[in-house]
Every structure is written in C-alpha cells, then in structure tokens.
Write a structure and sequence with these properties.
Blueprint (H helix, E strand, L loop, with lengths): L2 H7 L8 H28 L6 H13 L1 H17 L3 H32 L5 H33 L2 H8 L21 H64 L4 H49 L3
Helix pairs in contact: 2-6, 3-4, 3-5, 4-5, 5-6, 8-9
Length: 306
C-alpha cells in the first residue's frame, strides 16, 4: 500500500468527533513519512545513492513523535471506550500490543539504520526490516480507521468526549515536522517530504490533463463520425432524388416499382457506408482509450518508488 492508496481508502468522516478527525490527520502525516521511507528503501535495494541522514531522521521522527505522543493518546481513548463497549475491550488489547510492538520495532530499525550507516550492517537487512515496519504500520492504521474509530464514534457521547478533552494527557502535542515550526533535527526529512508532495501534486495534475485531453480527442472522433454520417446521408438523399427524377421521365408507368428498388439499393449502400464510418470511429475510440491507459501507466511507473 502507498500513500495515495491509504488516503483514498481512509477518507475521514467530517461528522466524526474532533479527536478522531485529529487522529486521522496524524495518520496522514505518518503515512507520508512511511511513503518517503519506502522510496528510500527501494533506492537502497536498487543500489542507488541515498541520503542516509534522511533515513535516520525518518526513524528518529517515528520513535520520537508517533510512539511517544500519538499512540499513547490513542491508548487513553481506547481505554475509556473499552469500559463502555466489550468489543472495544478486545480491540484495545490488540491495539495496545500493536503499539508496543511498533515502538520496539521502530527502535530496532533505528538502531539498524545507525549500524548500516557505520558499515556494520548490510543494506538488504535495513530494507527487510524497513518494509516489515512500513507494512505493519499501514495495516495497524487501516484497522484503526476502518474497524475501531467508527465504533468509538458510535459508542462515545458528547459528554464522554468533553470529559476526554479535559484530560491533559490527551492534549494535542505539536508535531516536530508537520506542526507550525519544523524542528532543526528533522529539517532534511521535511524538505524531502515537501518535494515528494510537490511531485505528487504535479503527477496528479498531469494525470488529470491526460484524461481531459483524451476526452477531447474522443469528442473529436465522435464529432467527425457524425459529420461524415450526415454528409453520406445528404449525398445519398440527393442521389436518390436525382435518380428518381430520371426514372420518372424515362419509365413513367414503371417508376413506382423502379424507384422503390433503386431506393432500396441506395439504402443498403448508405447503411454500409455509415456502418463503416462508425466502425472506424469505435476503433479510434478504443485507440484513444489505450493511449490514455498507456500514459497513465507511465505516470504511475514514474511516481512509483521502485
């Protein structure tokens, strides 16, 4: 799963409690950091030059902020809701265990990155541990957003949320990367994140233009086919009138039968020509769609981290 897929699958419900909306927003931030980590892991695997300090900053951020502030705040909310709903009590145990494992695995990965930077560990091991960490993090956040947050939102009342909001431990803590001011120790990572986001916006704009351009081209195909169809119809009508006039002058007694036969012949010719025009138009529309799909695949490949 990548950042775009995660965001599309887990759009927040604007009617949710503000605390849950805030947790979802923090998940988007975490997902963008995980996406940047995935980019660098793929670069390591391809034996490309990477900024090793940025990878260190990514994991330092993960163990400094989500593990120390985001997850403990979630645990407090889960604990409050679990006292009300038995199903949430079961989920709470799983989620708290996940948080403990993620914190431990995050510290292990950070240590692996430090060992790798000193030349004491191979890049392949960092890639393996990093991908396991990314996959587990995405899976954990997906479970929270799909299964847990909706139940909590349904179980807790406005009075419950007011009581929770009075707890100082649940006060939002300024994010050192996504907050008002980027802390110095994460400035390189923040710069890479902004660059990645900018590229994502650019790719999305190009993708939208590809779709619009294909739509216009499809419109031109249909328009040209209709124009040709009208021209063929007009020519056949004029031909039919002209030949009917000749038949009436040459064979007045037989003209009704001869005109009917001639019109039937002209009608079949018209049908064959019109069919050919729209058959060609359908082929062109399929080509336009194939070209659009090919260009979208190239865009996705250009934006895919390996």
């Amino acid at each position: 799963m990548d950042l775009q897929a995660f965001a599309e699958q887990h759009d927040s419900d604007v009617s949710e409690a503000p605390m849950l909306v805030g947790l979802r927003a923090e998940h988007r931030h975490i997902a963008s950091v995980l996406a940047l980590l995935s980019d660098h892991l793929n670069a390591i695997e391809r034996s490309e030059l990477v900024d090793t300090h940025v990878i260190y900053e990514i994991m330092d951020y993960m163990v400094t902020w989500p593990d120390r502030f985001h997850h403990p705040r979630e645990d407090l909310i889960y604990g409050y809701a679990a006292d009300i709903d038995q199903k949430l009590a079961e989920d709470r145990r799983r989620l708290e265990k996940d948080h403990d494992h993620m914190a431990r695995n995050g510290r292990d990965l950070l240590q692996a990155v430090e060992d790798w930077r000193r030349g004491e560990l191979g890049g392949a091991e960092v890639v393996r541990l990093g991908r396991e960490y990314v996959q587990a993090s995405y899976g954990h956040m997906s479970f929270e957003e799909q299964e847990v947050f909706p139940v909590i939102d349904a179980v807790l009342t406005h009075a419950d949320w007011r009581e929770l909001s009075a707890d100082d431990q649940l006060k939002a803590v300024g994010d050192p990367v996504f907050g008002r001011r980027v802390q110095r120790e994460f400035r390189n990572m923040a710069r890479k994140l902004r660059r990645s986001l900018r590229r994502g916006v650019e790719r999305q704009a190009v993708a939208e233009w590809v779709n619009v351009e294909s739509l216009f081209e499809a419109y031109e195909v249909v328009s040209m086919a209709n124009q040709s169809g009208r021209a063929i119809t007009k020519d056949q009508l004029m031909t039919g009138l002209r030949e009917a006039s000749y038949i009436v002058l040459d064979e007045p007694l037989k003209s009704p039968f001869l005109c009917a036969a001639n019109n039937a012949r002209l009608g079949l010719e018209w049908w064959d020509e019109v069919q050919g025009v729209y058959r060609d138009a359908l082929t062109d529309l399929m080509r336009v769609n194939r070209e659009r799909q090919d260009r979208m695949r190239l865009l996705r490949r250009a934006g895919r981290p390996g």
